[in-house]
TrEMBL record:
PPR repeats lie at residues 22-56, 123-158, 194-224, 226-260, 327-361. Coiled coil: none annotated. Keywords: Repeat. The keyword Repeat applies. GO terms for biological process: RNA modification. GO terms for molecular function: RNA binding; zinc ion binding. It comes from the Eukaryota. This is DYW domain-containing protein. Belongs to the PPR family. PCMP-H subfamily. The keyword Repeat applies. Residues 544-635 form the DYW domain.
Length: 635
């Protein structure tokens, strides 16, 4: 009685005062503790029951296994599984279901499959458990569909849990035809109006790119919508790159008086960060303040990430300093933000503060720390932190940490040490490692091309259809003046029938986003832009600028190379912004790495125009002011 009324302490008191206890007494206590979230007490009570000499029943095992699942205690759960086998209780359908739930929760899917295959009989919970276990695994999600079809062939009735689980699986697989079939089944079972299934359908259609279906379902839901419904729509718009629709949905929520939760804000802020729309991000921040969520640690961490990715690391830092509560994500976002902007010393100082505050770092923290060392050339300090990961914090370095170290050596020009470092790695180098090696050789103007060619060979074996690998190899040969080898790399790319992404730059103005590609003549203001570009080129040359033709990666005459360089997308973008009257900093985003010539030109332009230029490329931020860059030419 006390347990069912939520008074677990009273239940424990009654139990403690009992002179005699039987199996029912122990089962009542263990069940009470599990149902009221006292998971460690549940396990302790199970051990005490065993020591008292009483034999546990199926009810005892079910509650104890449930607590092990909640705690993520795989090892203890396996021991109880063994106990169940000895007692012959493992064949009980409810015990087997508890085992399925345990192994699914801790990610032991092979054990799930084994338990399920050994069950003499199943019930609806058994099928739902095995489908749910595999629907959470991206790698084995197709197994969820296999078990769903098995459940239907066996003649079992489907319920809301079945539909929620299978829709989660279908959304990961992006099976457009299958999600319509599941939707039809939900209608057949008269469950399509269940809000949990409607929300699952919204998430599924959104992941599959069918936002029209999402909008139809959402409009029919009317007053049944909850926070999950709104979040599913916003996430769907963002997943399909309809950022403005996602923002409109947020405004619509506010107008209807709908409560916005931290997940909504974090999702929208993440989208703003991904496309670097500072103005939209600031609007979301303002909404967060009106919704009294500015002190929420999840929203705060997302704000730090958004501001740093949109070029305002100063705003990110100010917000971080004022946060009432910080978690590991807050620290990681700020450390990574400083690293991305080339403020290596600030990132490392913050890491020291993090340790002093008592917040233990995780693997992501060290990616930020090692990146900070890489961007400012702190080779010795980088190796010190890499060593401290395991020795001081017990964190085994992962592939991404080894990639950071290869990048650190490459940026410092230590190509001779890269090969030895890669050969001594405890795991086989993957695509990320080899691409970092090839990028390092490319930056070194073709020095140690043997290592670069080895890295390219490994990449072609692992990822033959990725154009980036061919482009990097081609650029490595071109930067070293090996035009014949470059031509061979380009031919290999054509033979593999792969296409590289076109380099583009974009700026956000009051009248929208303006995108430019190299040599762009499609913009309606092209005459003004090229007039401004010619003016900038004259003024730069008068100031001492000399085009760095080594970055024109084609075998052309010098004059042609200079012309090619002058029409790079980021130069067209900055010329476009300078045709408008403004004193604000110029913010340019680029999908590829900025070339050395454009980097040099932007230093001159910042002095000539008297403007701050913030350029985000695929690697980091560059802040140009009065003829200097924040990276101090180390990038």
């Amino acid at each position: 009685m006390y347990a069912k009324c939520g008074s677990v302490n009273d239940a424990k008191s009654v139990f403690a005062l009992m002179n005699e206890r039987d199996s029912v007494s122990w089962n009542s206590l263990i069940s009470a503790l599990d149902q009221n979230g006292c998971f460690e007490d549940t396990v302790t009570s199970f051990s005490q029951m065993r020591r008292s000499g009483l034999i546990p029943s199926n009810f005892t095992l079910i509650s104890t296994l449930s607590s092990c699942a909640s705690l993520g205690w795989t090892w203890l759960g396996q021991q109880i599984h063994g106990e169940g086998i000895k007692l012959g209780l493992d064949l009980d359908v409810s015990v087997s279901n508890a085992l399925l739930a345990l192994y699914a929760e801790v990610g032991c899917l092979a054990q799930c499959e084994k338990v399920f295959s050994l069950m003499p009989e199943y019930d609806q919970v058994s099928w739902n458990s095995i489908i749910g276990a595999f629907s959470d695994s991206e790698a084995l999600v197709s197994e969820a569909v296999k078990y769903f079809l098995g459940m239907m062939r066996a003649g079992w009735s489907l319920n809301r849990v079945t539909f929620i689980n299978i829709l989660a699986a279908v959304s990961l697989l992006s099976f457009q035809r299958f999600n319509h079939q599941i939707h039809a089944l939900a209608l057949k079972y008269n469950l399509a109006d269940d809000i949990a299934i409607e929300n699952a359908l919204l998430a599924c259609y959104g992941k599959c790119g069918e936002m029209d279906e999402c909008e139809r379902i959402f409009s029919r839901m009317s007053e049944r919508r909850d926070e999950v419904s709104w979040n599913a729509m916003i996430s769907g718009y963002i997943h399909n790159e309809y950022l403005f629709k996602a923002m409109d949905m947020v405004w619509y929520m506010l107008q209807r008086g709908q409560k916005l939760d931290s997940f909504t804000f974090a999702t929208v802020l993440s989208a703003c960060a991904s496309v670097a729309t500072l103005e939209r991000g600031m609007e979301v921040h303002a909404c967060g303040i009106r919704a009294h969520l500015q002190s929420d640690v999840v929203v705060g961490s997302a704000l730090i990430d958004m501001y740093s990715k949109c070029g305002r690391v100063d705003y990110a830092s100010r917000f971080f300093q004022n946060m009432p509560v910080r978690n590991v994500y807050s620290w990681n976002s700020m450390i990574s933000g400083f690293a991305r902007h080339g403020h290596g010393e600030d990132a490392l100082n913050l890491f020291r503060q993090m340790k002093l505050s008592g917040q233990p770092p995780d693997h992501v923290t060290f990616v930020g720390v090692l990146s900070a060392c890489s961007h400012v050339g702190l080779v010795e300090e980088g190796f010190m932190h890499f060593k401290a990961m395991q020795e001081e914090f017990g964190l085994a370095p992962r592939t991404e940490h080894y990639s950071c170290m290869v990048d650190l050596l490459g940026r410092a020009g230590e190509l001779s040490k890269i090969e030895d470092f890669v050969n001594k790695m405890p795991m086989e180098p993957n695509i990320l490692i080899w691409r970092t090696v090839l990028g390092a050789c490319c930056r070194a103007n073709g020095r140690n091309s043997e290592l670069g060619q080895r890295a390219a060979h490994m990449l072609f074996e692992m990822e033959p259809q990725n154009a980036v690998n061919y482009v990097l190899l081609s650029n490595m040969f071109a930067s070293g003046g090996k035009w014949d080898e470059m031509a061979k790399a380009r031919r290999a790319m054509r033979q593999a029938a792969v296409k590289k992404d076109a380099g583009c730059s974009w700026v956000t103005m009051k009248d929208g986003v303006h995108v430019f590609v190299s040599g762009d003549k499609s913009h309606p203001e092209k005459d003004l832009i090229y007039e401004k570009l010619a003016e900038l080129n004259r003024k730069m040359r008068d100031a001492g600028y000399v085009p760095q033709t080594s970055f024109a990666l084609y075998d052309l005459e010098v004059e042609n190379k200079e012309e090619l360089l002058s029409y790079h997308s980021e130069k067209i973008a900055v010329a476009f912004v300078l045709t408008r009257k403004s004193e604000r900093p110029i913010r340019i985003m680029k999908n590829l790495r900025v070339c050395g010539d454009c980097h040099s030109a932007f230093k001159y332009i910042s002095r000539i125009a008297g403007r701050i230029i913030v350029l985000r490329d695929s690697n980091r931020f560059h802040h140009f002011e009065d003829g200097a860059c924040s990276c101090r030419d180390y990038w």
